[in-house]
Design goal:
Aspartate Aminotransferase, domain 1, alpha/beta, 13 helices, 422 residues, 2 domains, 7-stranded mixed β-sheet, Aspartate Aminotransferase, domain 2, 12 strands, 5-stranded mixed β-sheet
Length: 422
């Protein structure tokens, strides 16, 4: 399909009216595990489903079109996608990784390094001096995660690409938090993009999957070889469902990020909020970089609540938000990274990354913004009891300053009460 068409059009038309067997408008689902050969010496395009499948190919082509990739590989999970790229490095090679990345990625890299598969250096990728110094060590692969999970720090992709030119490092960007609707790292010079398609790309929280997309065909073919060799490719039915979800990516994200922005505007004025991590705020350290490399600020944000807020009680009191891991679905989710998504990191690693026990991550869905705001405010009222602190549950050690009352006290929460964001 022509790349002159808008991305929204390309994804709406992906695979449509391509069935030559029965002229179905929607593409059929191919569940066969194997495919017949017309002749034993003539290998067909598809022979075994681990190696290739028509339904999976349609999803790979659709995502490659959105990201501007030459080749895509669909994997069984987001972590399978992340792990797949590390087949490109060998023992002794150095991987530069963000010190504040997703907990599962941190766990994987730590485990692989302990097994001697490669070396890992954790770097604050928002610190230009530290990042430049790390490149002196000659990394083979650099993994960036922007915005980062869960602190939404912004890495300057163009700056990383410029540094990589001197040492020939492969630049891999995890684009899960934004999707190609809001950011296209390959167009900024990255070599590979990875996704947990479980999140925004599928958007319905009913399929686990991943994707790896390469800017150059040769690198893509190497990744596809490893995916077939290791058997991490995605299932046909999962690919079918993910392609169906992908068709609504743009209108979903447009609505979700609009609501997230409105809620953040209300939270900015609440005295019980110590910090808000949202690149859409002009006060965010990465705000200008995000404006330059993104097409929007997304629908994810995190809040570090003040000492007088019992964050565990806050979550328990929510009625519309669902306490769950994952993100990017049609439903609004909330989690405490320290005991959920990033629990596999040691307390020391979380402290270095800046992930406190009071941090709460929000993924905004498709509910009405006013309803979400009221739900959050009523939960915050119940959780803002002087003297409670973090004593509402046994997930954390008791905090020394837990007895402090919330600064600012209660106030009216409104989507329209705060000044607009930059």
């Amino acid at each position: 399909m022509s790349h002159d068409l808008h991305a929204e059009t390309r994804i709406a038309c992906a695979g449509i009216s391509t069935d030559t067997a029965h002229n179905s408008v929607s593409p059929p689902l191919h569940l066969s595990a194997n495919y017949y050969w017309n002749d034993p010496c003539e290998k067909p395009q598809y022979d075994y489903a681990r190696s290739g499948n028509p339904t999976r190919s349609q999803l790979e082509e659709a995502l490659a079109s959105l990201e501007g990739a030459a080749k895509g590989v669909i994997t069984a999970s987001g972590m399978a996608a992340v792990d797949l790229v590390f087949n490109l490095v060998k023992p002794g090679d150095l991987v530069l990784a963000p010190h504040d990345c997703y907990g599962g990625t941190h766990r994987l890299l730590t485990a692989r390094a302990k097994c001697g598969h490669f070396n890992v250096a954790w770097v604050d990728q928002t610190d230009p001096v530290a990042f430049k110094a790390a490149f002196v060590r000659g990394p083979k692969l650099v993994l960036i995660e922007t915005p980062s999970n869960p602190l939404l720090r912004i890495t300057d992709i163009r700056a990383v690409v410029a540094l990589a030119k001197d040492c020939g490092a492969i630049i891999v960007a995890d684009n899960t938090f934004l999707s190609p609707a809001l950011q296209r790292p390959l167009e900024l010079g990255c070599d590979i993009v990875v996704h947990s398609t479980t999140k925004f790309i599928n958007g319905h929280s009913d399929v686990v999957g991943g994707a790896v997309l390469a800017r150059e065909a040769k690198l893509g073919e190497e990744l596809a070889w490893w995916a077939n060799c290791t058997g991490v490719t995605g299932a046909p039915f999962d690919s079918f469902m993910t392609l169906r979800g992908l068709r609504t990516l743009f209108p979903r994200i447009e609505r979700q990020q609009m609501t997230a922005r409105e809620i953040v505007e209300g939270l900015v004025q609440d005295g019980r909020v110590a910090k808000i991590f949202f690149p859409g705020l002009a006060s965010h350290p990465g705000h200008e970089i995000a404006k330059a490399q993104q097409m929007g600020f997304g629908s994810m944000f995190s809040v570090e609540f003040a000492a007088g807020v019992d964050v565990l009680e806050l979550l328990r009191r929510l009625k519309i938000f669902t306490i769950a891991e994952s993100l990017g679905g049609f439903e609004s989710l909330v989690c405490v990274p320290a005991v959920m998504t990033h629990a596999s990191m040691t307390p020391e690693a979380r402290a270095i990354a800046g992930i406190s026990d009071r941090l709460v991550r929000f993924s905004i869905g498709l509910e009405h913004g006013e309803d979400l705001a009221r739900d959050l405010f009523q939960a915050l009222e119940h959780a803002s009891v002087s003297g409670r602190g973090l004593r509402g549950g046994s997930c954390f050690e008791e905090n020394e300053d837990a007895h402090l009352a919330a600064p600012g006290g209660s106030q009216e929460f409104s989507l329209k009460s705060a000044p607009p964001l930059a």
